[in-house]
Design a protein that fits this description.
Rossmann fold; globular; alpha/beta
């Protein structure tokens, strides 16, 4: 494939922020600063996934509405038996695909632990591809923020945890996103500030498939400059 046009991305982002903090309130400050850095450039939706995904606000650029939603990310009852982050990613991808959003982003913030969403990981990754959304993951490491429990059947827990690990590992690579593991609050704030700056600096690449070349669902983007951080999907969205 040959790129025919390279230009700064100017259309507003739509960012679905999934907060899997087990009710700790760990990400509240980081989310607030992330949104503040991108106000005027994006619409945001905030969803908690301590249990079933719960949308605190639909997509909006309104700072007052977003501030009210962020205030709900304080300490609250958790779900020590496991989260449903996989369901949150799946729901966000389906919503983006349905609405055919121009610049969709899914930001998953997680404290890790057990996952209780019995969705096949390949199914969720395919939904992510179809949506065209970039999946970014920030996970806190080194803290036991969700206790370990014993499931009724050990194979269920194993399959669910393998599924979320596959999506959080392969999803960012395939979609042009990024995964970062951080040490608690300070790392989350810094990581999200860096992500906000990266989103501000995105470019749009328009390309065409030369005649006689069979289309593929995979492609690669490269840059000759060494001072450029290049993140691009490796699987072409279907939209």
């Amino acid at each position: 494939m040959r790129s025919s046009l390279l230009k700064p991305a100017s259309r507003p982002l739509q960012i679905a922020i999934l907060v899997d903090d087990n009710g700790t309130g760990l990400f509240r400050v980081a989310v607030a600063r992330f949104i503040e850095a991108l106000l005027g450039r994006a619409e945001f939706s905030i969803i908690t996934v301590a249990g079933q995904p719960l949308k605190l606000t639909p997509f909006t650029p309104n700072s007052d509405v977003l501030r009210e939603a962020i205030m709900k990310l304080t300490a609250r009852p958790g779900t020590p038996d496991g989260g449903q982050l996989l369901a949150g990613i799946s729901d966000a991808a389906l919503d983006f695909e349905r609405r055919r959003v121009d610049r969709p982003v899914i930001l998953a913030l997680t404290v890790g632990g057990e996952e209780h969403t019995p969705l096949p990981p390949d199914h969720v990754l395919e939904q992510l591809r179809k949506s065209g959304a970039a999946l970014h993951v920030v996970s806190v490491v080194g803290y036991q923020l969700r206790p370990t429990t014993q499931p009724n059947r050990s194979e269920d827990l194993l399959n669910n945890n393998l599924g979320i690990n596959q999506v959080l590992g392969d999803g960012p690579k395939r979609s042009g996103g990024h995964r970062e593991e951080v040490p608690a609050i300070a790392g989350a704030v810094t990581g999200l500030q860096q992500l906000a700056e990266a989103l501000k600096g995105q470019y749009v690449v328009e390309y065409a498939v030369p005649e006689g070349v069979k289309p593929s669902d995979r492609f690669s983007v490269s840059a000759k400059r060494r001072d450029v951080t290049l993140r691009a999907p490796t699987h072409i969205p279907s939209k």
